[in-house]
Write a structure and sequence with these properties.
The complex is a heterotrimer of chains A (543), B (364) and C (351). Chain A has 543 residues and is α/β, with parallel strands linked by helices. In chain A, 35% of the residues lie in helices and 22% in strands. Chain A is globular. In chain B, 67% of the residues lie in helices and 2% in strands. In chain B, strands 1-2 form a two-stranded antiparallel sheet. A two-stranded antiparallel ribbon of chain B has the order 3-4. The chains are: A alpha/beta (543), B mainly alpha (364), C mainly alpha (351).
């Protein structure tokens, strides 16, 4: 690692959007010949910081110095010419053109008679060679390559334009273990060539396997910069979610659980081997009547993906679901509703609210959809229903005829919750119901969840805030890297710390097994300080 | 009414999207009155008790436009388009005329009803084809209805074997030319149909679901709406309404002109919908607005003829109006008029530095 | 680490010329999914020729084939322009009305005594201006392509009708007609000669230039890239806005040129000319293997598609049993079949 000046230095960066401070005085620096990881939970500001660097967003405060000069880029093209290239999670290449063309698009080699294809493809092969990919036939269409390989082609495109700084934004989300190892090999090669690599990911094992240094952001603020080998997993997680070890231990489960005889009780829903290629590995899951099941895990662990399969928002590739003892096939949300399942999405803007309709229309929509268009809900019934839920959930302003787009995020969330409650579901799935809403509204929603369970409704509660999950759930399903890695039956002694332990501990064993951690390549050996903690604690043994 | 209440009422009225359409209608009528002060005069024909006058002519001319405008509103609301309405009009007219010509019996109500029934059935089939292509096969609406637009006219020609077919049938003729309680039948029929459609759409949940699909198809699906059946219904409805328009159109002269019947009527339909305030991108729609739009177009057509301007100018003028209305509906122009954009965008001037944050722990 | 020298991955040294060709063909086919549909279009064309010869006779001979090119030169030019637009994932519904407006205006100006060469330039420019208007509406104001070009279609027809609703006839001695004059290239027996007009030469030039632009210039590759993914193209730093407007300008300009070619052959212009030609151009492009959703397609395929449509007309006329009214239905049906096939192929790819 070079001890000279950083090639990128961002100081005190602030960016404000109407109503929210996306970045608040963030520092960041990147040296040549290093892999630097940028970490943080959802909304921490990672992608905002990157967009600030490449000039997609204009900064409101602070300075950006690239290669010794203060710069303010006007977009990715501008940044690219200065040597700062970005490769995104969704591979931003064009699959209808050939591999070589994608590498050289925009910089094809021209001669007297237009583009000289032979020279262009040769240059492409040269760029691919810097990554060890010279064997690829550059004339083949890009679509013949896997996503992982396409990503490597995207990286070689950056090399073709002589990038000095390579930003990799969540490159591993769709890759399997072997493909990730291939990517890391390439990254190490480039790093050794002196390229400065900024690596954004939420997969802890990968961070420990590949990065030299890491910077943590939380809620738009700079939390710290650390040498990877000097920060252990637990500290890392704590800093990302903002609670220290002591506090984590004290946030315990408030729910008093009457002993549930899991063995004897027939679950309401029993999923076996439920999976979907690319989003969630085959998983077993049982949900009992009146049970609150929490899905816990870091971003990208597969919580939402699993939940969507239960509702029919996505179709499962494999596995089966048994509902009330009968095998069912849930093909679309209408099916899910018909089976008395409801699902509140985490993406309320794109998949939740119908912006130009009123609060009333949004609230009754699912019930109306079930009845079909020919049987409209009588106005009086609509009014009663809407008034009931506006009052119960404390929607403000309490005006059913207001357009939902004019409500605050928290109130929109409550209206959506009303929509699902109105369908009288037996299983209600809530995906990040308290995200982005104020404390008061949060508490109201959490209360509503507890009441539902008491009424016999089963609830799946998904949240990135571990303490919420621990506080509300009877049983916690822990997910990581697209699979379920364990279940914790909640009890008075269970705390968020236990969940963190499960996530951290599981990764070490699995990572060592799959070979992601490559000690021979000289990257830092991972320490597993808590490897001896059992994967989860059985509640029967706790007092 | 107090001044505050009155100005509120006025502001509400102005905000209605078709307000300017209504203003335009009155403006055009005023223009005509300028040329001939007796333009708006209504008189009663002593022989048969029918109302006579320019206004009556406008109402009669607006009938077919009302039909296709209403159908088009629903299709556009779902985020689609139906370019085939003009051709369906021609097909419907062709079917009716050929049926009546072959059947003879120029006074028979049964024949008239048979002709109408058959014409509407064929229209429904054409609409179903559009609907299946869009809803179940997933073709883009413009290409499916574009093909239907051009093939449809061919179908009309095949039905009439290329001839402009005429027929004689008094009951049929009466629909387009007759009067009842002094008012033109065709207009009353149109209004009744519009009211029926409006009631069905608004009293049932059909309108709500159509709007939901048009505004946010993903969220609608997550809420349990199944779009396919709805889309099929909407395209069939649009075609049937176009079929009715075709019957009204050929009934006036009892001849179907395979090249000219319904020619460029899709232009009128789209224009009426846009004037009525429905966005071409889909979402909330207004039947009342479509009515205003249709009346405006009929008034416009008659005014141009009355003022002696060549009627060949009209399509060009209508096209310009569509372009202008599209521009007014576009985001870029909206932002020129100061409406705030929601998503984060590049900002122009940086604000002062925020207070310093905690020191970083960077090891040597 | 030094850059590795690329080993040459060529055909084996001892290969015969034939297997080299086979390899080359294999590579071309596998590297571009649009090759197969275009080849299919050629096969269809050849098939139709054979069928026509067997069923009606006198198809495979010089004058029939010459006339095929002469009578469809304008359609070939239209199809080339449409290819550019459809490759980016857009559509241009105004091409037929541009021809109407351009030809009516041109003939009236020529008859009014204007310099014929100036008139020709103006006819082309009318197309350019309408194309530019479409492009700006689409790119700058975010109007959907079919709406913007539909509006232009109505506008063009309206303006043409404003100018004249009767057939306008070019003066018999107008130099413009020279572009439609037939020249014998090969003198066969009786009337069976290979004949060509300057219009056909213009069409062929257009095709060659379009081929060069699409396959040998950065702009052309940007057209394909936009069709593949507009957002990715923007992120890759390509000149997306400029290129999107450019394809509509190209389509409009080529429509203007097609107007010149058509009018010079017929000598008559009318405001109802060209009704339905947008469908013909789209059909020619789609038959030729260009995906309606963009990103895939060859301009040579569109030429074959235009010839397929032209030949279909010839066969229908020869047959005599099929009424001419069926032509639009058949064209529509063929287009529908191809669009459905495209949809079936692309949806299979996405699972």
């Amino acid at each position: 690692m070079s001890e000279s000046l950083p090639i990128v230095e961002m100081r005190d960066i602030s960016i404000e959007f109407p109503g929210v401070k996306a970045l608040d005085g963030v520092d960041f620096r990147l040296f040549q010949g290093e892999v630097h990881a940028l970490m943080g939970e959802n909304g921490a500001g990672k992608s905002t910081l990157i967009k600030a660097l490449t000039g997609v967003y204009k900064i409101d405060g602070g300075s950006i110095v690239v290669a010794g000069q203060e710069r303010q880029f006007h977009g990715t093209g501008d940044a690219q010419s200065a040597g700062v290239s970005t490769v995104y999670q969704e591979v931003n290449l064009v699959t209808n053109l050939s591999i070589g063309e994608n590498v050289m698009l925009g910089h094809e080699i021209r001669g007297a008679f237009g583009v000289n294809w032979r020279a262009t493809h040769a240059a492409a092969t040269e760029a691919l060679a810097t990554l060890g990919l010279e064997h690829l036939d550059t004339h083949k269409p890009l679509s013949t390559l896997s996503i992982a390989m396409q990503q490597l082609v995207a990286i070689s495109r950056a090399m073709a334009v002589k990038a000095k700084v390579l930003i990799l934004d969540e490159p591993t989300s769709s890759l399997d273990a072997a493909e990730v190892e291939g990517l890391f090999r390439v990254m190490r090669t480039l790093r050794d060539q002196g390229v400065a690599i900024l690596f954004v990911s939420h997969f802890l094992d990968q961070i420990y396997a590949i990065s030299d240094r890491l910077t943590i952001l939380r809620n738009g603020k700079y939390e710290g910069e650390y040498l990877t080998r000097e920060l252990d997993r637990h500290d890392l997680i704590s800093k990302m979610i903002g609670k220290d070890l002591g506090t984590l231990s004290s946030l315990g489960g408030n729910r008093r659980v009457e002993e549930r005889d899991y063995a004897a009780e027939v679950p309401l829903l029993d999923a076996k081997g439920l999976g979907r290629r690319g989003s969630i590995e085959p998983t077993d899951l049982a949900i009992h009547r009146g049970e609150v099941v929490g899905f816990a895990g870091l971003l990208g662990s597969g919580r939402t993906e699993l939940a969507r399969l239960l509702y029919g928002a996505d179709r499962a590739d494999e596995g089966e679901i048994t509902l009330r003892g009968k095998r069912v096939d849930i093909k679309n949300p209408a099916d899910g509703l018909d089976k008395r399942i409801a699902f509140s999405t985490e993406n309320r803007r794109d998949e939740g609210i119908i912006a130009d309709l009123t609060v009333r229309e949004n609230m009754i929509l699912a019930v109306q959809a079930e009845r079909g268009w020919a049987r409209p809900i009588p106005r009086k019934e609509q009014d009663e229903l809407v008034e009931k839920y506006i009052a119960a959930l404390n929607v403000r302003p309490a005006d059913p005829n207001r357009l939902i787009k004019n409500l605050s995020g928290g109130n929109q969330q409550k209206v959506l919750l009303g929509r699902w409650l109105a369908t009288k579901p037996e299983l209600l799935i809530l995906d990040e119901p308290t995200r982005g809403i104020d404390v008061g509204a949060k508490a109201e929603i959490q209360e509503a969840v507890a009441e539902l369970a008491e009424d016999g409704v089963s609830v799946v509660f998904i949240s990135s805030e571990l303490e919420e999950v621990v506080r509300l759930s009877e049983r916690i399903v822990v997910l990581k890297d697209h699979q379920k890695i364990g279940e914790i039956v909640n009890g008075p002694a269970i705390t968020a710390q236990h969940v963190v332990d499960v996530i951290a501990a599981h990764g070490v064993e699995a990572a060592a097994e799959s070979g992601i951690i490559d000690a021979e390549a000289g990257s830092h050996p991972t320490e597993a300080p808590h490897a001896n903690v059992p994967a989860f604690a059985a509640p029967e043994e706790e007092s | 009414m107090s001044t505050a209440a009155r100005s509120n009422w006025l502001r509400e009225l102005i905000r209605k999207p078709y307000f300017w359409g209504v203003v335009a209608i009155f403006a055009l009528l005023a223009l005509n009155v300028l040329k001939d002060p007796n333009y708006l005069a209504l008189s009663v024909n002593p022989v048969n008790g029918n109302l006579v006058g320019n206004v009556v002519d406008i109402l009669r001319a607006s009938a077919p436009i009302l039909m296709i405008a209403v159908g088009m509103s629903l299709v556009i609301a779902t985020g689609g388009i139906d370019l085939s309405v003009g051709s369906v009009m021609a097909v419907s007219g062709a079917v009716a005329m050929v049926f009546m010509k072959d059947a003879g019996q120029s006074g028979s109500v049964g024949v008239a009803l048979g002709a109408i029934g058959l014409a509407l059935l064929v229209s429904a089939v054409l609409g179903a084809i559009n609907g299946v292509l869009v809803a179940y096969i997933g073709l883009q609406p413009f290409i499916s209805t574009l093909i239907m637009m051009l093939a449809g006219r061919g179908i009309a020609k095949v039905i009439t074997e290329g001839q402009n077919t005429s027929a004689t049938n008094d009951p049929f003729r009466w629909i387009a030319n007759g009067f009842v309680i002094g008012l033109p039948v065709v207009f009353l029929l149109a209004i009744i149909i519009v009211i029926i459609v409006g009631l069905v759409v608004r009293r049932s949940a059909l309108g709500l679901m159509i709007e939901a699909i048009g505004i946010n198809p993903k969220a609608s699906r997550m809420a349990g709406i199944k779009p396919s059946g709805l889309l099929l219904t909407v395209y069939i409805l649009s075609a049937v309404l176009a079929g009715i328009a075709g019957i009204m159109s050929v009934g006036t002269v009892m001849t179907v002109d395979v090249s000219r019947t319904g020619y460029q009527m899709e232009l009128d339909a789209i224009l009426a919908v846009v004037i009525g305030g429905t966005s071409l991108a889909g979402g909330k729609f207004s039947i009342g607005g479509a009515v205003v739009g249709a009346l405006l177009i009929a008034t416009l057509d008659k005014t141009i003829v009355f003022l002696g301007i060549s009627s060949s100018a009209t399509p060009a003028f209508k096209a310009i109006v569509i372009v202008v209305l599209c521009l007014l509906q576009s985001d870029r122009v909206r932002s020129w008029f100061g409406q705030r954009r929601k998503p984060p965008q590049l900002k122009s001037d940086p604000t002062p530095v925020a207070p310093k944050q905690q020191k970083q722990e960077v090891p040597a | 680490m030094t850059t590795v020298q690329t080993p040459r991955v060529d055909a084996p040294v001892e290969a015969s010329a034939f297997s080299k060709i086979v390899d080359r063909v294999k590579r071309v086919v596998s590297s571009n999914p649009s090759v197969l549909p275009t080849v299919a279009a050629i096969v269809i064309f050849v098939g139709m020729v054979i069928y026509g010869e067997v069923a009606y006779g006198r198809i495979v001979q010089y004058n029939t084939l010459s006339n095929l090119f002469i009578n469809n030169a304008h359609l070939i030019i239209l199809a080339v322009g449409m290819t550019f637009v459809i490759l980016t994932g857009g559509i241009d519904l105004s091409v037929g009305s541009v021809i109407a407006l351009s030809s009516v205006a041109g003939v009236m100006l020529a008859n009014a005594g204007w310099n014929p060469w100036l008139v020709i330039v103006l006819m082309v420019l009318i197309g350019t201006v309408i194309g530019l208007a479409s492009g700006i509406l689409i790119q700058y104001f975010n109007v959907q392509p079919f709406i913007a070009t539909l509006a232009m279609m109505f506008l063009g027809r309206g303006l043409a009708a404003l100018l004249s609703t009767r057939p306008e006839r070019l003066a018999d001695d107008s130099p413009i007609l020279w572009l439609g004059e037939q020249f014998k290239l090969i003198d066969g027996e009786k009337v069976n000669d290979v004949v060509i007009t300057p219009g056909v030469i213009i069409a062929l030039l257009v095709v060659l230039i379009a081929f060069f632009v699409l396959h040998r210039t950065r702009t052309g590759r940007t057209v394909y890239a936009i069709g593949g993914s507009e957002s990715s193209s923007a992120l890759m730093g390509l000149a997306v806005p400029r290129t999107k407007i450019l394809v509509y300008v190209i389509s409009g300009t080529l429509s203007g040129i097609a107007a010149v070619v058509y009018t010079s052959r017929l000598g008559i212009a009318q405001n109802i000319t060209g009704i339905g030609w947008e469908l013909d151009a789209i059909a020619a492009t789609v038959i030729g293997g260009t995906l309606l959703t963009g990103g895939y397609g060859y301009v040579l395929g569109s030429v074959v598609g235009a010839l397929v449509l032209g030949l279909m007309n010839v066969l229908i006329t020869r047959d005599g049993g099929i009424p001419p009214e069926m032509t639009t239905i058949i064209t529509g049906g063929i287009l529908l079949v191809f669009v459905l096939l495209q949809r079936a192929v692309t949806s299979k790819r996405h699972t």
